[in-house]
Description:
With 85 residues, the protein is mainly beta. It contains 1 helix and 6 strands; from the N terminus they run E-E-H-E-E-E-E. The chain has one helix at residues 20-25; strands at residues 2-9, 13-17, 32-37, 43-46, 52-57, 69-76. The strands form 2 sheets. It has a 3-stranded antiparallel beta sheet, with no helix packed on it. A 3-stranded antiparallel beta sheet has the order 2-5-4, with no helix packed on it. The radius of gyration is 14 Å and the shape is elongated. The model has no long low-confidence stretch (mean pLDDT 89).
Amino acid sequence: MEDGGEVELIGGWAEIALEAGFASLVDTASYQVFVTSYDPVPVFVHNRSARSFEIHALQTSIHRRPVSTRCVYRVVGRRKDRSGG
């Protein structure tokens, strides 16, 4: 199953809560998050938990301070009622 959305990283980061319906259906111990910035700013996922995750902008030599940018995320998880590979 999957969910997704867009978010603006204010000051270089944002916390995204998993949508309650999605979280109730998937194994929140092992979901995957894929992120893409709409700007030339590298982004990464941090602090994944059963309820939320964070997206951070990577500070570079060009961007020494936290940057604001928009990005898209996609969350993919295995359904709780399915077992195995």
